[in-house]
Design brief:
The chain contains 19 helices and eleven strands. With 461 residues, the protein is of the alpha/beta class.
């Protein structure tokens, strides 16, 4: 009798161990979607793969991960049957679905879902040249802000150099005590401004140093204007110059570019059943144009090609923007929702998974995973092409040429002055330093200032 009881107990224990082992060996379905699950040789990697590993370690279960057969998230067909990962859960082909699966009321009726492991909303991406806001100061658009600052500095330095050369060069101003000084500070800036308008403004410099600076500035001005009008002409004749799309209302109010979302997905359903008139118009446009795509990859590709805006969940769109620098995401995000893990109705795993997800969120692990898989990988070449405005680096050689011309011009003026000082010192049997000091006082002192005032009064007259 005791032997029979022992045998029964052993069989029961073996059966319980077998059931426990089978229960822990979970079948988990996912979908290939960058960066949630991606192929790396024979294995998968990504955000959801790392999340699943963390949950497995925390709850102590084993699992087998496989891709959903029809590459669908979960949608009900016309006959009432569920497809995709939700269908596999309902049919018992999988114990869990770990993927960017949107938590919706319709799905919650047929499966149990955990608390969201990621919050998101709906936005859209499009090329940056389509999203750029029209500016009142479009005349400034051919040059970047840094470029305009560089041009202003070049203008001020050139005007100052012309003024200094006019003062220092004996050829330009031979007798400061008796002659009028033509190149006052005001006239110097007026002279180089005339060059920018390709008109010129006399009188022109007589000294070699002044002529050199004048020639270099004219060359700088001509090339700068050529770059400005060339870039301005390109922007003016752009086919997208009148389009500025910043919100869903802007998207619905134009018919120049097409837009769409993944067919039969939760995003499409949001617009289909929305009572907002703007969102209804967006759905009607997509239905009329049949502008749906089969996957997010197709939507991103069409957006990069131009004249298309892809509507999707903001967190996924952020990844596309991080990898393709020509794209931008709308600031407006609507229809907030979350990604959650799906399990069969009544599954005891849902409670434990929810607690584990909350613990990972509170400890910062979910933030770490987000930063890891959403890191920007924009290439430098792509970045450079996203801005049409010319940068100072684009015309670096032109600025260097101007700087060298100004330096050589000042050096020549100084050599002219030193040569005259040396001759005067030799003739008058004085030291060069005393003659140089006296000459500088005449040119920059009270005598020079009075001569400049007389010249200014004459120019006004």
């Amino acid at each position: 009798m005791k032997g029979c009881m022992s045998l029964v107990i052993c069989l029961a224990a073996l059966t319980a161990c077998s059931i426990t082992a089978d229960a822990k060996d979970l079948s988990i379905t996912t979908i290939k979607d960058d960066p949630y699950a991606m192929s790396r040789g024979p294995e998968l990697e990504g955000y959801c793969v790392d999340l699943l590993a963390m949950l497995s370690k925390k709850l102590g279960f084993k699992y087998k991960l496989h891709l959903v057969k029809d590459n669908r998230y979960g949608v009900m067909d016309s006959s009432g049957n569920w497809q995709g990962m939700i269908g596999e859960i309902i049919r018992g082909e999988a114990d869990l679905a770990v993927a960017p699966l949107t938590l919706t009321a319709v799905r919650e009726q047929v499966v149990d879902m955990t608390t969201p492991f990621m919050q998101t909303g709906l936005g859209f991406i499009l090329r940056k040249d389509l999203a750029s806001e029209e500016s009142t100061f479009s005349l400034m658009s051919p040059f970047s802000t840094d470029m305009w600052v560089g041009v202003l500095i070049a203008f001020l330095l050139t005007g100052l150099c012309m003024f200094l050369v006019g003062r220092v060069s004996p050829t330009e101003w031979a007798e400061p005590d008796t002659e009028e000084h033509n190149f006052t500070l005001l006239h110097s800036f007026w002279y180089i401004t005339g060059a920018l308008t390709l008109q010129g403004a006399g009188p022109h410099p007589k000294a070699l140093s002044g002529q050199l600076i004048s020639a270099i500035w004219w060359l700088f001005a001509i090339l700068l204007l050529a770059c400005y009008f060339g870039n301005f002409n390109s922007a003016l004749h752009s086919s997208n110059k009148h389009i500025s799309i910043m919100s869903f209302e802007d998207l619905a109010n134009q018919d120049v570019i097409d837009y769409g979302t993944v067919e039969s997905g939760s995003t499409m359903m949001f617009f289909k059943y929305s009572n907002n008139p703007v969102y209804r118009r967006i759905y009607q446009h997509m239905e009329r144009k049949k502008s749906y795509v089969q996957s997010m990859e197709e939507g991103v590709r069409r957006t990069q090609e131009g004249n298309f805006a892809f509507i999707g969940e903001a967190v996924s769109l952020d990844l596309a923007v991080a990898r393709y620098c020509k794209l931008t995401r709308s600031q407006e995000v609507i229809g907030m929702r979350g990604y959650a893990i799906a399990a069969p109705l009544g599954s005891p795993l849902v409670k434990n998974l929810t607690i584990a997800i909350l613990q990972l969120s509170e400890s910062g692990e979910l933030t770490y995973l987000r930063d890891k898989w959403w890191a920007s990988s924009c290439m430098g070449a792509d970045r450079a092409q996203t801005s049409e405005a010319l940068q100072p680096s684009d015309l670096r050689g032109l600025f260097v040429l101007l700087g060298l011309g100004l330096a050589v011009g000042l050096l020549l003026a100084l050599i002219e002055l030193l040569s005259r000082v040396r001759n005067q010192a030799k003739d008058g049997k004085k030291s060069c330093c005393s003659v140089l000091t006296s000459e500088l006082n005449r040119r920059f002192g009270s005598g020079g200032e009075s001569a400049e005032e007389d010249s200014l009064d004459k120019n006004k007259a």
